């Protein structure tokens, strides 16, 4: 299969914008909220935005695979896979909080090569492609230089999930060691790290569509996205973002608080 990173990257930017902008038709408006089998919320906005992105991908790249949160996989045997999360942070979206994002990650032969984090309600668009660097609204962005947890700002999605998934002691230690903690979470927290506005973001549980864009975005912005054992992967089910200088100290916290 012929694959041109530059042209697919540009297409992914356009497709993410179309999907994310579609969510604005429902944001801060009245709509029904359903519950999935795992009790997580889903709305018509989630489903329609993913449909918008899927239709664009199928029209432009019919041979590519698609993995999405809301619908079944398409072309699972393809070496190129688009991984979609139409609304990451559905709980924020439901409550009219603008810190939700539309995510696209792309893997080629299981290796992440493109990452997009789009916050449509804030008009913030972060994109990255392997070897091309990362951008915020078209301008180059970098992680902030920070090599000491005592000077770091720490983001998380909430204060309960870490304990539920066995990271309660590590979470408490990070809160104690860092300068400030805020729950500006989900993928938006990782984007804050990639764009130099925060220093550490931790997610104790991640689905593949949550994690897919994060590794590329963080690596291309000069930082790292890895699991609690230090593996740079989108498949471990957990992950955190930070500067490379801060990485050893964060890993030591997880190791010491197992």
What structural class should be given to the helix and strand makeup? alpha+beta
Number of domains: 2
From the coordinates shown, what is the CATH architecture of the largest domain? Answer: 2-Layer Sandwich
- Indicate the low-confidence ranges by residue numbers: none
Strand content: 25-35%
Features:
258 residues; single chain; 26% strand; D-Maltodextrin-Binding Protein, domain 2; 2 domains; 14 strands; 33% helix; alpha+beta; globular
Could you walk me through the main structural features you see in this protein, from its secondary elements to its overall organization?
The chain is an alpha+beta fold and 258 residues long. It folds into 2 domains: 5-140, Fructose-1,6-Bisphosphatase, subunit A, domain 1 (Fructose-1,6-Bisphosphatase, Chain A, domain 1, 2-Layer Sandwich); 149-256, D-Maltodextrin-Binding Protein, domain 2 (3-Layer(aba) Sandwich), CATH 3.40.190.80. 33% of the residues lie in helices and 26% in strands. The chain is built from 9 helices and 14 strands. The longest helix has 19 residues, at 5-23.
